Amino acid sequence: MDYFQSQSLKHPLKCKKRLTQDQVRLLETSFTFNNKLDPDRKSQLAQQLDVPPRQVAVWYQNKRARWKSQILEEEYKSLKHRLESVLKENERLEREVERLKQDMTLVCNIPSFSRSCDEVGSSSLKFHGQNHHHLDKEIYACFNIGGEGGEFERIEGHNFFDPSISL
Questions:
Q1: In the chain, what are the domain boundaries?
Q2: What are the residues whose beta carbons fall under 8 Å from the beta carbon of 110, sequence distance 6 or more?
Q3: Structure confidence at residue 138 as a pLDDT band (50, 70, 90)
Q4: Strands (DSSP E) along 3-157, which ranges?
Q5: Handedness of CA 112, 115, 118, 120 (dihedral sign)
Q6: Higher pLDDT, 134 or 107
Q7: Using CA atoms, how far apart are residues 23 and 56, in angstroms rounded to an integer?
Q8: Which residue in 32, 59, 67, 115 has the most C-beta neighbors within 10 A?
Q9: Where is average pLDDT lowest: 13-22, 43-52, 117-126?
Q10: Which helix (H) or strand (E) holds 159?
Q11: How many of the other CB atoms lie within 10 Å of CB of 117?
């Protein structure tokens, strides 16, 4: 007698019954209430469905695996959609920044604006360790907001370019 014949005698093949639609419906309903199967519930379902308890347990295991995969797939799709939205928004903002830089260059190159605009130029916009508030002052000077007296700079006693104020 060879190895396979001896194994088949030790473990006779049992025909596993395929579940009917009604049985699956009952298992699905039970699963929606609790996706874990306690021993009492397993015995009760097996008796109710007229199948071995092991088949009920295996069905629950498989259902949990499919359920987890489905949840992961849905989360992946949601995250992918959010990423695409953020990337589009990022592109839009980058285009807007580029447009604003071009506008700034055009405005700063108009000779009728204040002389401080020429002083601002591109060198101070490079953030070479300069104070951010100082940069803001130069940008507003470029647009001549408030004139030479700095009307914009002080409104009702507030200095908008005070380094102690955080943005």
A1: 19-108, 112-167
A2: 117
A3: low
A4: 154-155
A5: negative
A6: 107
A7: 10
A8: 59
A9: 117-126
A10: strand 158-159
A11: 21
Measured in whole angstroms, the distance separating CA 25 from the mean position of its chain's CA atoms is: 35
116 token code pair:
């401080």
**What are 151-160's contacts with CB under 8 Å, separation 24+?**
160/136
Q: What tokens appear for 56 in the block?
A: 């009920």
19-108 CATH pick, 1.10.10.60, 1.10.260.40, 2.60.40.3080, 3.30.365.10: 1.10.10.60
DSSP three-state, residue 69: helix
The rounded distance, in Å, linking the Cα atoms of 163 and 8 is: 85
Match 């699963």 to its residue by tokens. 31
d(CA 29, CA 35): 10
Q: What is the phi/psi pair of residue 146, to 5°? A: 85, 0
- Asked whether residue 6 carries a pLDDT value surpassing 50, the answer given is yes
